[in-house]
Each structure stands twice: as structure tokens, then as C-alpha cells.
Design goal:
With 387 residues, this protein is of the alpha+beta class. It is built from ten helices and 15 strands.
Length: 387
């Protein structure tokens, strides 16, 4: 028993097995094999290493965005002049990565809670009976106002009339507003932090520059009209009814070179409001919301209601940093070596099943034994035992 265990251990540790190989001199099979190997090699070098950068590990950044709008607008409504600055036309005003710049509005001043007639064409009536039944958009009082033949409602009065949107937009001067974007990113795996205020952008340059994709691609100050144009919109159209634009800051960095080459690129995309201006066929066009300023007048609570049409700006940070790493490199090489086995499989199929001499090649490749024939040595052993 001990000798059997000893022999088994000896065989395990001190013997080496290798597959039987057959050298086949056949031009067609040789060419097929080399073509497949060349294709696999091209895939490994071209796709895995050059295109997919399989020799590098990757990291996605943690990012923060700060924004600031600047510019002044002027309007004249019913002979009254008004000045609008960033406090008035930016919602919300805290400098978020997503905000709205007001370009048009419908204002309803001096509203207070009370009873007043609805707008003509909304709740038309001929008698009080037509105004019973509770509420439609607003709470009805059950009274038909004979003067304009509409139902009386309990609401903020006078009710808002938003049927006619000002055209052209009241704040067309918004085209010349400027947007300052400050963006910081950190790649935690690599311990690298970067800002869009890269080397060479000092205070003097920033105070004078204006972003241009060709002449000033790194300038962080953008003219609103240029943002709209680069996103594919028409400013006059989007200013009237509103819309949304995405500003993408792309940090795609190769950290195998000097970190100063890790710089952002900016792109602009129309999200909705339809750059092709085909939104007229849709049920809801543009972007708008309502905003109210409350105040007291003679101890009566009143408000000024604004229906705001504006350009919503969403700043989106896209990031991917790469750096050489031995582990993905070895993984990619190992996968490529494994794929080389495809050439052997294909060539074996050609040899054993497609070529005219397939029987000959099969006999050369495989060694067959007959399990019914007894080994001569084992037969001699059994005879000696019987005697």
C-alpha cells in the first residue's frame, strides 16, 4: 500500500505530460492557420491595446460645478421701464449646475385672494346654473357674471391671462448675457485633481476672453447667444417659448503623459425646444414655470405673478481617466494568447473533415486502442498465476 502511494506521488511530482503534435505540410491549411493568427494579432494590437486601451486601468471623476451669470436687461411694459439683472432673471440664484435664464414672461400684478370673473372662453355661462358643480381650474362660486358671460371664481384676482405670449421675447438682450463656469474634478483612484481653470488661464485672460471652439476653447466664459447657436437652436424662437440646453464638460485624460495635458472640452446639445423648430406639432412647446413675489399693501396680502419662459441650462460633467496598469495588461495579453487557439481548432476541423486525405490525417493525429484485445504482458501474467 505504501509503495503504491509512493509511486503515485512520484509520478505526480516527477513526470510531465505533453500533447502529441503532428506536423502537417499542407499549403492550404498553413495559409488558413496564419491568416487566422494574423487576424487575432491585429485584433489584440488594434482593438484591445490601441482602441480600447486594454493596457490601462480607468477611473471616473468626482466633480463639482459653480456657475455665475452676468448681464443686464431692460423692458418697457405699458410705458413703465424696468431693469433686470441676474438676481431677477436667474432661477435658482445659488449658482447650481442646473438653472433657468428668463428670456420672456407674462406678468400679472396686484393679485389678491377674492372673487372675480374667469377669462372669456374658459367658463362661459348664460345663467347661474351653468356655474354650479364645484371647480374647474379654479373654485367656482355659482354666480354667472353678466358683464362678460363667464363664471365667477374664488382665486387670486385678477386671474392670469396667458393666452398671448409676447413676441418677440421681452428680454432679447439675454443673448448677450455671459455665463462663467468653474468646474473641479478629482480622480480618486489616481489621486489627481484638476480644474477647468487650467495652466495659462490667469485673471487678466479670464476678464477679457470669450469662449470660442476654435480661437478660445479653454475660456470658461460663454455668451448665451453663442451657447444657443452651438446647440443648434434659433435664439429668437427659444427666447420666446423657452427650452433646454445641455453643456457637456468632457474630461477624457491619459495620465501616462504629463497631467497638464488633462484639459476639458466643451460641447453643447439642444435637449428640448427642438432645434429643427418642428415642436409646433407637439402638445407642449418650450419650457416655462410660474413664480410669485408676495407683499403686503394696506395690510392686504398681494402678489405679482410671473409666468416665466426661459432657457434651462444643464451642465453635465463627463469624465474618464486612464493610466498604465500591469494587471489589465497581463489580462489582455492572456486573453489574446487564448484566442490564438481558435486557429488550431479551425485547422483541425479542416484537416479531419474537409480535406480528401482526412482519414490519413485522422490516423496520424489519434492513436486508437482496442479495449477487447488484452495486452500480451497482462495475458502472460494471468497464465502464470493459474499455474
Amino acid at each position: 500500500m505504501k509503495s503504491q502511494i509512493s509511486n503515485a506521488l512520484s509520478d505526480f511530482f516527477f513526470e510531465y505530460e505533453t500533447p502529441r503534435q503532428v506536423l502537417v505540410r499542407n499549403r492550404r491549411v498553413g495559409i488558413v492557420c496564419r491568416l487566422i493568427q494574423a487576424g487575432v494579432l491585429a485584433y489584440i494590437i488594434g482593438w484591445v491595446f490601441i482602441y480600447e486601451k486594454g493596457y490601462q486601468s480607468t477611473d471616473i471623476a468626482v466633480s463639482s460645478v459653480f456657475t455665475k451669470m452676468k448681464g443686464v436687461g431692460y423692458t418697457t411694459i405699458n410705458g413703465e421701464e424696468k431693469v433686470w439683472d441676474e438676481v431677477d432673471y436667474v432661477f435658482p440664484p445659488q449658482g447650481d449646475s442646473s438653472f433657468v435664464v428668463m428670456t420672456n414672461f407674462i406678468i400679472t400684478e396686484g393679485q389678491k385672494i377674492g372673487k372675480c370673473p374667469e377669462l372669456p372662453g374658459t367658463l362661459d355661462c348664460s345663467s347661474d346654473a351653468d356655474c354650479e358643480g364645484g371647480r374647474f381650474k379654479r373654485q367656482m362660486t355659482g354666480v354667472c357674471v353678466k358683464a362678460n358671460k363667464t363664471c365667477e371664481v374664488l382665486a387670486w384676482c385678477p386671474v392670469e391671462d396667458d393666452r398671448n405670449i409676447p413676441d418677440p421675447a421681452l428680454l432679447m438682450s439675454a443673448e448677450n448675457y455671459t455665463l462663467f463656469i468653474k468646474n473641479s474634478v478629482t480622480f480618486p483612484i489616481f489621486g489627481i485633481s484638476r480644474s477647468n481653470l487650467v495652466e495659462g488661464l490667469n485673471s487678466e485672460y479670464i476678464s477679457k476672453c470669450l469662449h470660442d471652439p476654435k480661437d478660445a476653447p479653454l475660456c470658461p466664459i460663454f455668451r448665451l447667444g453663442d451657447i444657443v447657436k452651438l446647440s443648434g437652436f434659433n435664439f429668437e424662437t427659444i427666447a420666446k417659448v423657452g427650452g433646454a440646453i445641455g453643456i457637456v464638460i468632457d474630461w477624457t485624460c491619459n495620465l501616462d503623459v504629463d497631467v497638464k495635458h488633462c484639459r476639458p472640452t466643451y460641447s453643447f446639445h439642444g435637449l428640448y425646444g427642438n432645434a429643427a423648430e418642428t415642436d409646433k406639432a407637439k402638445a407642449s412647446v418650450g419650457y416655462n414655470f410660474r413664480y410669485a413675489k408676495h407683499y403686503l399693501e394696506d395690510k392686504v396680502q398681494k402678489r405679482t405673478l410671473l409666468k416665466v419662459f426661459g432657457i434651462r441650462l444643464d451642465i453635465i460633467v463627463k469624465s474618464l481617466a486612464r493610466k498604465f496598469d500591469i494587471i489589465p495588461t497581463l489580462t489582455a495579453i492572456g486573453s489574446g494568447v487564448g484566442i490564438f487557439g481558435v486557429a488550431t481548432v479551425v485547422c483541425d476541423l479542416v484537416l479531419l473533415y474537409l480535406l480528401p486525405k482526412r482519414a490519413y490525417y485522422k490516423n496520424m493525429k489519434f492513436k486508437s486502442t482496442d479495449s477487447h484485445k488484452q495486452d500480451p504482458d497482462s495475458e502472460a501474467c494471468s497464465t502464470a498465476t493459474e499455474k
